[in-house]
């Protein structure tokens, strides 16, 4: 291993995030923070400069995996900003305890936002879901724990069918589940009381970046008069959008959309596979966070409170 080469645990985590074996914005943040702790514990450095450089290099390896979920850089930022100390031992201790604190906060934030989201749901409600979001599930599960009877219409969410994970987890939580194809969503909106989705990033203008198809669902929900909320703990707030940056939308492999044989049989075509889209704030009723619920247009106030005017990149080479 060269001086700055990440330890195997970091490379494995980065690989698993890139292939979506580890997926979902909160889960990615959790795994990335734990990988930094592994780098601190298992990296072999005897001077503080080399330790810091190896941590930055590990963070860059993790950062390069997927571009859209801001929870990933926010996790790296949280841990690296607390990398303080004059000796390797002190640095190591501080990184490990920052990771522990971060992971604890993630769990608590999800629990707290779950309560807020659950308060929006009433006994007997039917919700519609899109993709698989642990933050969105936390709201529905908390409602069930409050003693409310909840049913769900679950969109399968092409191309990776992550709605299947949602269907299974909701069923296990005691929710009665109806699975539908994405194109059936508008037809079923008349039967639902709320749409509940997650987020990979929230922009300063209140735009919600989430799994492809969310924006169309939101427009249809508005047209049918069904309220739609996004459940997003504050690590989903994208600090760079405070200074005018936009959120990069990940483009994934065409094989997720169509198998090569079928594609060849069709003939010369292009295939595109954007993983996410942006729902404009005017189509979203509420952003539910661990600090309470916000109209999308006012989320910028919370962002400034938490991040100041922007974000640094502590993983960059000095
Ligand atoms: P939690 C997922 O992205 C979905 O878009 C989901 O809504 C979002 O992350 C948030 O998930 P992907 O990683 O953090 O499946 O709420 O592409 O679990």
Describe this protein's structure.
With 318 residues, the chain is of the alpha/beta class. The chain contains 11 helices and 10 strands. The strands form 2 sheets. The chain has a 7-stranded mixed sheet with strand order 3-2-1-4-7-9-10, with helices on both faces. A 3-stranded antiparallel sheet has the order 5-6-8, covered by helices on one side. The protein is globular and about 65 Å long. The two termini are 22 Å apart. The model has no long low-confidence stretch (mean pLDDT 96). It binds 1,5-di-O-phosphono-alpha-D-ribofuranose. 1,5-di-O-phosphono-alpha-D-ribofuranose binds at residues 23-27, 131, 133-136, 162, 198-200, 210-211, 275. 1,5-di-O-phosphono-alpha-D-ribofuranose (RI2) binds at residues 23-27, 131, 133-136, 162, 198-200, 210-211, 275.
Provide the structure class.
Answer: alpha/beta
Ligand types: 1,5-di-O-phosphono-alpha-D-ribofuranose
**Can you summarize the main beta sheet?**
7 strands, mixed
Low-confidence stretches: none
User: What's the shape?
Assistant: globular
Strand content: 5-15%
Number of strands: 10
Query: What order do the helices and strands follow?
Result: HHHHHEHEHEHEEEHEHEEEH
N-C termini distance:
22 Å
Q: What is the helical fraction, as a range of percent?
A: 40-55%
Radius of gyration: 20 Å
Main β-sheet, spatial strand arrangement:
3-2-1-4-7-9-10
Mean pLDDT: 96
**Helical segment count:** 11
């Amino acid at each position: 291993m060269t001086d700055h080469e990440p330890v195997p645990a970091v490379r494995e985590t980065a690989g698993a995030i890139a292939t979506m074996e580890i997926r979902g914005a909160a889960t990615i943040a959790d795994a990335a923070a734990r990988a930094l702790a592994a780098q601190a514990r298992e990296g072999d450095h005897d001077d503080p400069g080399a330790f810091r450089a190896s941590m930055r290099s590990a963070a860059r390896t993790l950062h390069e995996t997927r571009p859209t979920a801001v929870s990933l850089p926010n996790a790296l930022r949280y841990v690296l900003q607390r990398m303080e100390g004059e000796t390797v031992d002190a640095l190591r201790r501080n990184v490990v305890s920052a990771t522990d604190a971060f992971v604890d906060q993630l769990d608590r934030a999800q629990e707290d936002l779950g309560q807020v989201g659950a308060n929006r749901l009433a006994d007997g409600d039917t919700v519609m879901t899109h993709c698989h979001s642990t933050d969105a599930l936390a709201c529905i599960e908390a409602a069930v724990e409050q003693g409310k009877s909840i049913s769900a219409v679950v969109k399968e969410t092409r191309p990776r069918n992550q709605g299947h994970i949602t269907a299974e987890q909701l069923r296990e939580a005691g929710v009665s589940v109806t699975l539908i194809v994405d194109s059936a969503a508008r037809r079923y909106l008349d039967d639902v009381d709320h749409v509940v989705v997650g987020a990979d990033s929230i922009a300063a203008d209140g735009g919600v970046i989430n799994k492809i198809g969310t924006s169309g669902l939101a427009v249809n929900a508005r047209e049918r008069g069904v309220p739609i909320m996004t459940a997003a703990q504050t690590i989903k707030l994208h600090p760079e959008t405070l200074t005018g940056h936009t959120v990069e939308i990940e483009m994934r492999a065409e094989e997720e959309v169509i198998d090569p044989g079928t594609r060849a049989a069709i003939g010369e075509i292009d295939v595109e596979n954007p993983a996410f889209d942006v729902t404009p704030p005017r189509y979203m009723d509420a952003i539910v966070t661990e600090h309470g619920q916000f109209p999308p247009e006012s989320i910028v106030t919370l962002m400034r409170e938490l991040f100041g005017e922007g974000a640094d990149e502590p993983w960059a080479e000095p």
